[in-house]
Amino acid sequence: MARARSGDGGYWVAIILIGVFFVLSTTLAVLFYTKVEAAEQAAEEAESELAEVVRSGDQGNALYEEAEGAEGGGTVVSRILEGWQADRDQAAALQTSLSSAEQASASFEKTASDRATELATANAQLQTSEDRVAALESELAQAAGDTQAAIAAAREEERAAQSAARLSDSAVQEAVAQAIADAERVSGEASDESRQLARDKRDLEAEVARLESELRDRTPSVRLTRPDGAVAAVLQEGDEVILDRGMADRVPLGLTFRAFKPGEVIRLDTVDDAAEIAGGYASFEVFEVGSDTARARVVSIDRGAEVEVGDPIVNLAYDPELSYRFVVFGEFDLPGVAEGLGEERVRSMIRAWGGEVDPPINPAASSDITVSYQVDYVVLGPEPPEPRGLTAEELSDPAALVQQRRDRQLYDAYQEILRQAVAAGVPVLNQNRFLELVGYYNRQDG
User: Fold this and answer.
1) How many CB atoms lie within 10 A of CB 369?
2) Are strands 229-235 and 312-314 parallel, antiparallel or unpaired?
3) Long-range contacts of 131-140 (CB under 8 A, 24+ apart)
4) How far apart are CA 258 and CA 253, in angstroms?
5) pLDDT tens, residue order, the chain (446 aa)
6) Exposed (0-12), middle (13-18) or buried (19+): which is 323, by Cβ within 10 Å?
7) Cα separation of 323 and 229, whole Å?
8) What is the pTM of this model?
9) Which of 155, 152, 146 lies closest to 183 in space, CA to CA?
10) In a 3-state reduction of DSSP, which class is residue 197?
């Protein structure tokens, strides 16, 4: 009986243990599935948030793919943010460099302005020196005339003394000798001062040349020039002027001048490989030429400006002492000039100012074209269009073939002249700039 009871107790213990194990298993299973559901819900929320950050269309973007394939740790967003920060740092560095460049540019502009002011001062001093030299030369001529007059008077006095027997020969000779000595002394003093002023003038010219060279080095697109003359008188309430240049200086009718104020720096700016006169306040057109002077009308003047005696005048294509060399090419369309004669009309205008013009260029021999450094200006007509290809019908037309060949030669020659002029640093004047410069349009309008 005792064994039977013991067996029954073990049975119940086993049942209890199985029940406890079942309860624990059930609890663990419930907990496991609860965690799985929470993890799945968290994954869905993460995917939703990711979809908010990175749209499906963004995943095909090159920047997203590049960031996703980049080496290193972190998420795609963190890599993009790192790249964005690097771009910001680079932009800040570029901004700093730009600020430094702007400061350097401002410093350069101030230096160039200072050099231009120094150059204007040197030009003014040079003009003063030239005026003083001219005054001394006049005084020297006057002294020479006074000397000759004194000698003539002394000789006349000698003849009168001899005829009247009032003076001895020795007294007359002494008077003549004294007059000659006085004249020679005055002449010597004037000559010494004239030589000193000539030396000062050379020094000032050297200083002006140095300043011009320095300004050209700092601003290669800017060239300087000197006045070609000046206003000698103002007539009819400022509507007309007298210029100190005439037939002796090879001034033709219709020539135009730009007026400046004394001491002002006269610049030739290079714009799009073409030279232009910068500045000035008025323009004059010559309509009457005398032997040493010319009469001109005021064709334009800045508001509030007044023409004054002594104001310098400038024309880019004219120089009273130098003869500029020109190359002219193109089909110029000039009002009042027959078609095909425009180029020869431009040549005649240049020759009228005493300029030199190279022989006409043959478009068929473009390989022989040479624009050397001895050329001062190139004048080109309107740029011809590049020839188009011919149609099948035109290819069988001899006239069309000849015309296309001519158009191609003209186009190639034009481009070659322009290329050589730019390479040699020769200023180029197109048709409008040239005609405006010489006052052609003003004369047509008038």
Assistant:
1) 18
2) antiparallel
3) 132/197, 133/194, 133/197, 133/198, 133/201, 136/190, 136/193, 136/194, 136/197, 137/194, 139/190, 140/187, 140/190, 140/191, 140/194
4) 15
5) 444 455 566 778 788 888 777 778 788 777 777 777 777 777 677 667 655 555 555 556 665 666 666 655 566 567 667 777 777 887 787 788 777 767 866 776 677 677 667 777 777 777 777 777 677 667 766 766 776 677 667 667 766 666 655 445 566 567 667 767 776 676 667 667 767 776 776 666 666 666 656 655 555 545 556 778 899 999 877 789 999 988 778 787 778 898 998 877 676 665 555 556 667 899 999 888 888 899 999 999 999 899 999 999 988 767 666 677 899 999 888 877 888 888 998 888 888 767 789 988 888 887 788 888 888 889 999 999 888 888 888 888 888 888 888 999 999 999 999 999 998 888 888 888 887 666 565 444 44
6) exposed
7) 16
8) 0.38
9) 146
10) helix
Q: Are 23 and 31 in contact (CB under 8 A)?
A: no
CA 239 to chain centre: 32
Query: In this structure, what DSSP letter does residue 259 have?
Result: E
* CA 91 to each of CA 97, 222, 315: distance values in angstroms, whole numbers, following the listed order: 10, 34, 49
Per the DSSP assignment, residues forming a β-bridge with 407 are none
Query: Which residue do the tokens 């015309």 mark?
Result: 403
Cα–Cα separations (whole angstroms), residue 308 to 46, 282, 346: 86, 11, 32
CA–CA distance, 328 with 347 (Å, rounded to integer): 7
Cβ neighbours of 147 (radius 10 Å):
17
DSSP-assigned states of every residue in 94-107: HHHHHHHHHHHHHH
Q: How far apart are CA 316 and CA 324, in angstroms?
A: 10
How many residues does the structure list for the chain? 446
Rg (CA), the chain: 47
Sign of the alpha-carbon torsion through 393, 396, 401, 402 = negative
Secondary structure class of 279 (helix, strand, coil): coil
Distance CA 347, CA 327 (A): 9
CA angle 255, 259, 264 (to 5 degrees): 140
Give yes or no for a contact between 238 and 307, defined as CB atoms under 8 angstroms apart.
yes
Q: Which residue has the tokens 């000046």?
A: 230
